[in-house]
DNA sequence: CTTGACCTTAGAGTGCGCTCAAAGGTGTAG
DNA sequence: CTACACCTTTGAGCGCACTCTAAGGTCAAG
């Protein structure tokens, strides 16, 4: 797939895709004319990158995680790295729940009769 | 409290606190000598700002949320704004769970006998 | 009365993650 | 052959959230 096709599918600019490639987050082959040729799986990969980014992970962190997932390191090492990431994600979930609780609390203060949702 | 005390308590720089004040996220009185005098509640407020930031919210978003929480608008308007924010937080939680599921899946592929945690 | 840790301001600089501009090559339709 | 949408590269520019620099004021201890 050409760069414009991926860009339109995922909803990012072609500049962003070239930037991600330069950073090593995605890869491409080349057509004989020099155009990039992306495997269609790249679209899903970029979606995951954008998801992780929106959740507060930096490209450097995402890069590290993806390269671990891509690597052929021993399974127990992979498990260790991913377990750490899962712990981090679980922490973030509970932090978000904290934030939610704080907002609910403020809502109850303002309006004691209402029952908080969540 | 002087700016350095708040900074040390929360673990941010004094520059960051001055920046937040300029942006309107926090307030201070002044001593007669010109030094800022922060109410001690500001420490907790700054902690909440850092928490929200680490979860992917921009200062502009946080500013909007905090000014709503600070305001004396009618309760039903407040409820509406906060409900929207709660919906957003719930979405983020489920996105994080998605990310966690994706990692767990990858872990199972690498190591079929293990049971995923979460 | 000086040293040193704190505070003030204005304004410049930094790193991240894009985003745009310039100058040019490719490919298809009319 | 021309127009036009696509692609290429290099390098500059931008907004965000700080972070640092310069030049100076405050204040308690020795």
UniProtKB/TrEMBL annotation, chains A, B:
Keywords: DNA-binding, Transcription, Transcription regulation. InterPro entries: DNA-bd_dom_put_sf, MerR-type_HTH_dom, MerR_fam. Pfam families: MerR_1. Residues 1-68 form the HTH merR-type domain. SMART domains: HTH_MERR (SM00422). Gene3D superfamilies: 1.10.1660.10. This is MerR family transcriptional regulator.
């Amino acid at each position: 797939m050409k760069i414009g096709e991926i860009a339109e599918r995922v909803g990012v600019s072609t500049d962003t895709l070239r930037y991600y490639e330069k950073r090593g987050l995605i890869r491409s082959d080349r057509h004989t004319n020099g155009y990039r040729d992306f495997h269609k799986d790249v679209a899903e990969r970029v979606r995951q990158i954008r998801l992780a980014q929106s959740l507060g992970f930096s490209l450097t962190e995402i890069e590290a995680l993806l390269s671990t997932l891509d690597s052929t390191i021993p399974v127990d090492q992979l498990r260790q790295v991913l377990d750490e990431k899962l712990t981090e994600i679980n922490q973030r979930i509970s932090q978000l729940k904290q934030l939610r609780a704080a907002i609910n609390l403020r809502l109850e203060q303002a309006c004691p009769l209402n029952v908080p949702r969540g």
